[in-house]
Amino acid sequence: MAEAYIVEAVRTAGGRRNGKLAGWHPANMAAETLNAVVDRCGIDPGAVEDVILGCVTQAGEQAFAFGRNAVLASRLPGSVPAVTIDRQCGSSQQAVQFAAQAVMSGTQDVVIAAGAESMTRVPMFSNISLHQKEGIGIGPISDRIQKRFGVESFSQFEGAEMIAKKYGFDRLTLDRFALESHRRAAAATKSGAFRNEIVPLKIEEGQHTEDEGIRFDASLESIGSVKLLKEGGVVSAANASQICDGASAALVVSEKALKEHNLKPIARIVGLTVTAGDPVIMLEEPIYATRRALAKAGMKIGDIDLYEVNEAFAPVPLAWLQAIEADPAKLNVNGGAIALGHPLGASGTKLLSTLVHALRTRGKRYGLQTMCEGGGIANVTIVEALG
Predict the structure, then answer these.
(1) Is 251 helix (H, G, I), strand (E, B) or coil?
(2) pLDDT of residue 25
(3) Rounded distance, CA 34 to CA 178, Å?
(4) Burial label, 217 (beta-carbon count in 10 A; 0-12, 13-18, 19+)
């Protein structure tokens, strides 16, 4: 089978809600990452055959062919097509997998996978509120779905509580995990670990190059003081991912393109998997997806040097660690979404960028990325660092 290679992977530093990136139109923010992957590898922008861009809340400034608008706001020529996809939190991870499949099939040789989300300018759930405002319909969960699963709606917050209960996690366990996320992210920032992956964005103060959500002075006491999301529960805003503005992108190419454009790859894609399971508990699916991905790749968890498991809620990576019997020291080594933020549609290529650069910096070989997604879906991407 033909191979798919990653030549460059970048992300913006995360911006807090109403923070430093609030002035950036999401199409412009996405455009900067498209420009960056092309500029950094020196390829002719006209050689890009497609842009696949993930975005969850496709409304307002992120509506109306958002991926195409990102291209039009960039320095790529107007001849480059684009498409916007929604696989919830895994949207841009799926973009990478679609790009890799295009390259591996031989139908395309140079594709950019990307993602963007301004959760400040296009608030979460704003794309499903039409029926509430106008009295039109009942919303996205139809009567058939409600009858089949015995619920009026699916809630990730409830799913997080269900996982915590199933795996026996109390609040203190979740808060300790959250604290470690901030500590690792702070240490990575101070050491310059993110330097190679971050695309600077101009802001009033100069350039935005540091993730805004990291609490450098975080303590167990401060995290524990945050109100629970549900009375009697264990999940709080402090042990869940932060609302975040950001964009990310990766250039995925074939072996033919490497030779034709004299490109040096930084990683090879080893495995691509997506699975779906229970939409009610919803967030447990990365466990089953990981098992399938490792089996398909002929690998064991011990073969993987680093893992990025999205910290949508602390119970998710903790349950994954327990079920997979994975090494906590290899998980989210530079911190995760609890500290760095979760810009929804941008998180897939964001985590990929962090994973690939961390592998190369540490002289490691194999990395695995997964995340929980709305509807009980999960993607798993396995990569091999090169060079």
Answers:
(1) strand
(2) 98
(3) 32
(4) exposed
Cβ-Cβ contacts under 8 Å for 316 (sequence gap 6 or more): 160, 163, 283, 284, 286, 309, 310, 372
Q: Is 131 a catalytic residue?
A: no
Does residue 55 have an active-site annotation?
no
Q: Is the dihedral of CA 173, 175, 178, 182 positive or negative?
A: negative
Handedness of CA 189, 191, 196, 199 (dihedral sign): positive
CA angle 372, 378, 379 (to 5 degrees): 120
Write the pLDDT tens digit of every residue in 60-86: 999 999 999 999 999 999 999 999 999
Residue 88's nearest CA partner among 379, 353, 373 is 373
Read off the amino acid at residue 185: A
Give burial (CB, 10 Å; 0-12/13-18/19+) of 192.
exposed
Selecting among 182, 208, 342, 357, the annotated active-site residue is 342
Q: Catalytic residue among 89, 182, 244, 357, which? A: 89
Place of tokens 């990478």: 96
pTM assigned to the model = 0.97
Is 89 a catalytic site residue?
yes
Take residue 202 and report the two structure tokens written for it: 């101009």
Per annotation, catalytic residue among 55, 182, 357, 372:
372
Cα 155 from Cα 280, distance rounded (Å): 7
At 132-147, the pLDDT tens digits run 666 677 889 999 999 9
Helix H or strand E encompassing 30: helix 26-41
